[in-house]
Amino acid sequence: MTKKLKFSVGNDNGNSEQDIIIDGKLIRQPNVNCPVDGLPWTEEIVPESLVTNLLDQLIVTVDSPSARPGMYYVGQFALKSGEILDNMQVGIDMKCDVDLPIINTLANISGYAVQKVYEDTNELPESIQVKVDMTTALPVTQHNEESAAKFEQRFMINGQAHKVTVHLGKKRVNVEVIFSYVKAIPEATPVTFSIQKSLDGEWRKDDIFKEFAETNKLDKVTGQYFADKRILHIDIGDGTTEYPVTVGNQFLRQFVHGSNHGAGHAIEEALDEFNRLIHLPDSPRQFFSDVIKQPTHKYHDRAQKTLRLPLDNQAKQIIRNVRNQLTKTRNEIDVLIVYGGGSILMRSVLEPYLKTLCEEREIQLFYIPKEYAVTMNAEGLYIFTKSKIFTALKAKSQQATV
Question: Sorted alphabetically, which keywords does the UniProt record give (predicted)?
Answer without folding.
Answer: Plasmid, Transferase
